[in-house]
Amino acid sequence: MPELNLILFGPPGAGKGTQADRLRIDFRLPFISTGDMLRANVKDGTELGKQGKDYMDKGELVPDELIVAMARERLTEADAQDGFILDGFPRTIEQANALDAQLAELKRRVTAAILIDVPGEEVVRRLSGRRVCVKAGHNYHVDFDPPKRDGVCDQDGSRLIQRDDDKPEVIRNRLEVYHQQTEPLVSYYDQQGLMRRIDGTRSPEEVHDHIRAVIATLRMEDDV
Ligand code: AP5
Predict the structure, then answer these.
(1) pLDDT (tens digit per residue) in 105-152
(2) Mean pLDDT of residues grouped by 10 in the chain (224 residues)?
(3) Helices and strands in the chain: count of H runs, count of E runs
(4) pTM of the full predicted structure?
(5) Measured distance between the N- and C-terminal CA atoms of the chain, rounded to whole angstroms
(6) How far is the CA of 35 from the centre of ligand 1 (A)?
(7) How far is CA 171 from CA 6, 11, 41, 90, in A?
(8) How distant, in Å, are the alpha carbons of 45, 82, 97, 100, 106 from that of 110?
(9) Residue 154: what are its φ and ψ, rounded to 5°?
(10) CB 165 within 8 A of CB 209
């Protein structure tokens, strides 16, 4: 069966990670989050982590050359050869061009860019209540998606914490950066006929069902 090369796209807090976690199980695809990769580098104290941390703490984008090299290497790994779900990459036109070029070298292409659309005020509500587990970054929300036991991850039993960049002033900057640098990708993928829009204000289950329906349609249209 031809591969599914999906991009999950949308403002910070739209629910990309929440949905990617479900979709990778549905479609048995690797979930590649540049945010998670950067946080792992920060935690491990690598050179990339040291270079990226200041940008991340301020809610700015990490420079394209660092991100493109990191994503490029990840996409060459064995598990990404038959499809992938990208979360948080590409985030600039330059990153999108680099991804297209890498896939074209391998006679592959992006199947669809799925935009999970959520207004700014909802982003602030979601991110200020988000909690993530220290072990694997599983996502929860204190009101909308609470864990079974307060402060403990349902999936691996580890402690839940608030991310450093989920402070109100950083959330505002992340939104601004999204509008300025990432939103132009909507037209980029629209022009290629690849953009699919999802109403991200629905419940996580409804958003999941909608994305699955979109993917089913893509498969019928393209025999993907
Ligand atoms: P990254 O980790 O990618 O952060 P982000 O894009 O800002 O996205 P988030 O992870 O905050 O949100 P999400 O959409 O995954 O939402 P989630 O599912 O958690 O990037 C972090 C930083 O790394 C960037 O600021 C940048 O510095 C750097 N970086 C990363 N990639 C880069 C790149 N390509 N180029 C340059 N720099 C890069 O959901 C949020 C909350 O809402 C959760 O609590 C969840 O439980 C809840 N929720 C989810 N869905 C729903 C729903 N439907 N209803 C109610 N609540 C919901």
Answers:
(1) 999 999 999 999 999 999 999 999 999 999 988 889 999 889 999 999
(2) 88 93 90 95 96 96 97 96 95 98 94 96 94 90 93 96 91 96 97 96 95 90 63
(3) 9, 8
(4) 0.92
(5) 7
(6) 8
(7) 26, 10, 21, 19
(8) 32, 12, 11, 7, 12
(9) -65, -35
(10) no
Q: What is the DSSP pairing of strand 4-9 with strand 83-87?
A: parallel
Q: Which residues line ligand 1 (CB under 6 A)?
A: 10, 12-18, 34-35, 38, 55-56, 59-62, 67, 88-89, 91, 95, 126-127, 129-130, 139-141, 144-145, 165, 174, 202-204, 207
Contact yes or no for 134/161 (Cβ under 8 A): yes
Q: What is the 3-state secondary structure (H, E, C) of 152-167?
A: ECCCCCCEEECCHHHC
Q: Which domains does the chain have, with CATH numbers?
A: 4-30+77-120+175-223 (3.40.50.300)
